[in-house]
Amino acid sequence: MPSRSLVAWGALLIASPAFAEVADKEPSLGSMWAWALALNVIAFVLEWVRPRLGLIVLPLAAFIAWGGHSELSDPHVGPAILRELGRDYVSSSYASLVVGLVGPLVVVALCNVVRRRRMR
Prior knowledge:
The chain is 75% helix and 0% strand. By secondary structure, it is mainly α. The protein has one domain. α3 packs antiparallel against α5.
C-alpha cells in the first residue's frame, strides 16, 4: 500500500494547473480565411437570388469579427498570441476579419451595379 505522502504528492500533481500554450486554442489562418470566403460566397448567392438579401450575413460576420478582435486585443491573451504566433498571424487574422465583414457589403454593392447596367 502506498504511503500517505506519495498519495498526497500525486493528488497535488494531478490538481496542478496545466501549462498549455495559447496557440493551441486559436483557430488556424486557413479556417479564418475559409470563414471569410464562405461569408462572401453566401452573400453573393443570397444577393443573386434576391436583391439586398446578401446583407443577411452581416450579423454573423459582425459576431465573428467582434469575437476575433476581442480575443486578439485582450490584454492577457493578445500579447501571448503575438509572442507565440507572431505579427504575421495577427495581421492576417485582422485582414480575414475585415474581408469577412466588409466583403458582403462590397458583394451587395457590386451586384446592384451589375443589375442596373443590365436594366439599361
